[in-house]
Design a protein that fits this description.
555 residues, six-stranded antiparallel β-sheet, five-stranded mixed β-sheet
Length: 555
């Protein structure tokens, strides 16, 4: 149906309002507010026609019906939007006059017509406009409906006036109740409107932040993946979608985690499912710079992955964010650098070996060589041996892994031998060397390689104590591990330098600004030797206070 009345087919109910009351125009709201009284007046006319037809001949009752029709027409046809907003309040005032006519014209046939005053009372008080005036009119309007005819007829007694006070008082009570409810509803509506406005602002800001986040994620040249606690994807940016397509096997449009092409550093060995970055992140693990290779063939790419867990307000695991960074160019550049170093080192080794061989032959000729020539040859041999040692270190660092041959060794003796060999250098640098080791402490290690580690650490401790100081080498066992510490009171390192100290060819900024010799291979090679034994090497240092290296290897 058209208009404001519709029929609900499912329930069989008539729905007078197809939309909320406040969404109608002012003319529509005024007409709908008058409608209950108009319908009740029509029902009253029907009752009179059926049971009291004589009353329909009463001019006052006919005036009541006519005024109700006129008032309803006035509600509908008046352009209230063009008039002052409160002008529609004239309608309930006119209703009081109309009801007074109906009461005088029909009370002999149908009692209680004066109760129709409840409709304009409710209208006035529910409008929320001029609440005190509305309450006053709610009392005086019904009172006027009853008292004015009494005064017009004359012969009014106090009992007559008192007897008729119940209706105005009742209407006043209804008006108070409606006013209180309306005031409460208005306040609630204002609160809701304020909250709605705040929610709209918050929603707008949230959408703006979401758009900004999406723009940033789609712009960065790193893959970003967010998963919930169950491992379901909740966010994936453009770069990560490309990574996912790269790792997808041919002919499989929707692979699961175990089917993706994810390989270890050798580019051929598949990474076990439980060790893959996403699975580790779903299990709540956090990690940084985990290198894997995605894809196969010429399209294969090196990816470093990092993950951080997300927590809900209660601290429970709520998912993870995993970042994928393409480092293929860097890995290839490092490999090319290592190849270059290895090739150059091989080229250096052959002539150096030849030089050393001929120097040894010349030194063996004791009779035909004077002291000055022998001293010159000794200098040549010493520097050639140093160059050959440097070449060997370069080749060892290129391989990344060192072969060790463990056997039962008295490590305490290795410590004392390293201290003894370093005493001349320590004396020249005014450094005091101390050894804190038991008489005997055996372990299964490669004696040559472990001596190389000790010599490197002691040599560094002496070199980086340019103003003298103390170097202490301590040895002990802790359970199944052998623990060796080399401590100095030298220049120390900053936190930034400590993070790079085991990187090949790295030298701290303080050392680069001095004349201390070195190429930055001793510590990386020492680390490789210790790890080849299944151990670890760590350091702690403070700038200007000294450094301590701690070596732990299984006994």
């Amino acid at each position: 149906m058209s208009g404001n009345v519709t029929w609900d087919i499912k329930s069989g109910r008539i729905l007078f309002f197809r939309r909320p009351f406040h969404e109608y125009s002012l003319r529509g709201r005024v007409t709908l507010s008058q409608m209950p009284l108009s319908i009740t007046a029509a029902l009253t006319a029907v009752l009179m026609l059926l049971f009291f037809p004589v009353t329909l001949g009463n001019p006052l009752f006919l005036a009541f019906l006519a005024t109700q029709v006129l008032i309803l027409a006035l509600c509908y046809f008046t352009p209230w939007e063009r008039l002052p907003f409160t002008s529609f309040l004239i309608i309930p005032i006119l209703d009081f006059i109309s009801i007074a006519l109906g009461r005088e014209g029909g009370q002999e046939s149908l009692t209680g017509i004066s109760l129709l005053a409840v409709f304009p009372v409710i209208w006035l008080c529910a409008s929320g406009l001029y609440p005190r005036t509305s309450l006053l009119v709610s009392f005086l309007g019904p009172l006027g409906i009853i008292w004015v005819p009494l005064f017009l007829r004359g012969d009014v007694t106090g009992q007559d006036l008192a007897r008729t006070l119940l209706l105005p008082v009742m209407m006043l009570g209804i008006g108070v109740s409606v006013s209180v409810l309306t005031l409460s509803m208005v306040r609630q509506q204002r609160d809701l409107e304020e909250k709605d406005a705040q929610l709209r602002v918050t929603l707008k800001e949230s959408k703006r932040q979401e758009e900004l986040l999406n723009s940033v994620l789609e712009t960065v040249h790193m893959g970003v993946l967010a998963v919930d606690a169950d491992g379901h994807d909740i966010l994936m940016n453009r770069k990560q979608r490309e990574n996912h397509r790269l790792a997808t096997p041919a002919g499989n449009s929707d692979p699961n985690e175990s089917q993706l092409l994810v390989f270890q550093a050798d580019r051929t060995t598949t990474v076990p499912v439980e060790q893959r970055p996403v699975r580790r992140a779903v299990m709540g693990e956090s990690f940084t710079d985990n290198l894997v290779w995605l894809g196969s063939g010429s399209d294969q790419r090196a990816i470093t992955t990092s993950a951080r867990a997300m927590r809900d307000p209660d601290g429970a695991f709520a998912g993870s964010v995993i970042v994928f960074s393409d480092v293929t160019d860097l890995v290839n550049a490092l490999a090319a650098k290592d190849d270059f170093v290895a090739n150059v080192s091989h080229e250096f080794r052959t002539p150096l070996t030849s030089i050393l061989g001929y120097v040894e032959l010349l030194l063996d000729d004791h009779d035909g060589m004077g002291a000055p020539h022998r001293d010159a040859l000794m200098i040549i041999r010493r520097n050639s041996e140093r160059l050959l040692g440097l070449v060997s270190d370069l080749l060892a660092s290129r391989s990344g892994q060192l072969i060790v041959s463990p056997q039962a060794v008295n490590v305490a003796e290795l410590v004392r031998a390293s201290i003894s060999a370093a005493l001349p250098r320590a004396a020249a640098a005014k450094v005091r060397l101390h050894a804190d080791a038991p008489e005997r402490l055996e372990a299964h290690v490669d004696s040559g390689r472990m001596s190389q580690v000790l010599d490197n650490l002691v040599s560094n401790a002496i070199k980086y104590s340019p103003n003298g100081g103390d170097v202490v080498v301590s040895l002990d066992s802790e359970g199944p591990e052998l623990v060796c510490e080399v401590s100095d009171t030298g220049m120390g390192m900053s936190d930034k330098d400590q993070a790079e100290v085991f990187t090949k060819f790295f030298r701290t900024s303080n050392v680069r600004n001095t004349s201390i010799p070195g190429v930055g291979l001793g510590l990386p090679i020492s680390k490789a030797i210790v790890e080849a034994h299944g151990g670890t090497i760590q350091l702690r240092s403070a700038l200007g206070e000294g450094t301590t290296f701690t070596v732990r290897v299984p006994v």
